Structure formats: C-alpha cells, structure tokens
Amino acid sequence: MRIVSGTLRGRRLNPPMNLPVRPTTDFAKESLFNILRNKIDFEECSALDLFCGTGNISFEFVSRGIKSITSVDINPKCIAFINQTKEKFKVDNLYALRSDVFVYLGRSKMQYDVVFADPPYDMDKFDLVADLVLKSFLKPGGLFILEHSKEHSYTDNPYFVEQRHYGKVNFTFFRNEQKEEDQQ
C-alpha cells in the first residue's frame, strides 16, 4: 500500500502480515480522494476513520492536510501499527484509539466534518453503522462515506447523496444537510 497524494505521497505502509484487515485498494482509494477533493476543504476539516485497520485511509487524509483525524479500531495490533507509522512519518494530528466502534459511537460526544467507515463486509451489525453515524456524529453539512460490498444499498436513506463502484469496492456518500440551528 502506498499513499497516493499529498505531503506523504509515495510513502509505503508495510503492515505486518497477521493483521485481520482488508485494506482499501490503491485504485479505489485514489478515486475516493479525487472525489473528496471537490467536496471538502481538507485543511478546515476534522475526520473520523472507523474500522481503520492499517490506517490506510487515515494517512491519506493526513497527507492531504486534514486538521485532525481520529482513527478507531478494536485490534491492538492495528493501533500499534498506526502509532508506529505515525511516529515514523512524524505525524501529530492523527489520534489512534483502540475501541470497539460501537462502544466508541455509544460514548463519544464528538462531531466531525467527515466520517469514513469500512466495516467488515460480513459483520452482523453492518447497517447500524450508517444509522449511528448519521444520527449523532456529523457536523451540519458533514460528509459520511461508507465502504461496502454490492449487497448493500442505501439509496432510500434520506441522507444519501451518491454511490460509486470501483471493482468490488462500493462507496456510498451521505451528507448531513441540517443547519446548526436545526440540530439544537
């Protein structure tokens, strides 16, 4: 895996072979960030990366100048790898947290400009992720991107914006169109 653009462009992520992850392909990741560069101002955004695995997406956000990113995964080896890579790359705006994503979403009161989630495709509570994020974790105008297999469709969701396909990878984009005063 490599970082495809930004200040860390070309740097390689070399995670240990024993991590239980399915990293987003470089092709899908590059396509995703080409879309995002037209939708958000990275330098003004805070982001959340759920089920972050190797931190592949998190480091891509960092490379593009994100203000801050919180990366959450339950696996201690994933978090250790992210923290080692963060030190190696001299990154100070990435916060890696070891937590069950559902516990984190149940306890945290933070809201983000951008949330990315890449849950295991066969996870029992897969569809709960979108509901929980959209309910409480997006700032007004915030963008949520869910990576999923073709078996899932969110076109009926009131926050749905668009869906893109890249091989076996699907990204669905949601936007919180509520204004700040509507949420109070």
Characterize the overall form.
globular
Rg over alpha carbons: 15 Å
Please, what is the CATH homologous superfamily? Vaccinia Virus protein VP39
Q: Per DSSP, what share of the residues sits in E-state strands of 2 or more residues?
A: 25-35%
Give a concise summary:
The protein has a single domain (38-183), classed as Rossmann fold. It has 6 helices and 7 strands; from the N terminus they run αβαβαβαβαβββα.
Question: Topology of this structure?
Answer:
Blueprint: H1 26-36, E1 46-50, H2 56-63, E2 68-73, H3 76-89, E3 94-98, H4 101-107, E4 112-117, H5 126-136, E5 138-148, E6 160-166, E7 169-175, H6 180-183
Parallel strand pairs: 1-2, 1-4, 2-3, 4-5
Antiparallel strand pairs: 5-7, 6-7
Q: How does this model look, in words?
A:
By secondary structure, the protein is an alpha/beta fold. It has one domain: Rossmann fold, CATH 3.40.50.150. 30% of the residues lie in helices and 26% in strands. The chain has six helices and seven strands. Strands 3-2-1-4-5-7-6 form a seven-stranded mixed β-sheet, with helices on both faces. The longest helix has 14 residues, at 76-89. It is globular, with a radius of gyration of 15 Å. Mean pLDDT is 91; it is low at 179-184.
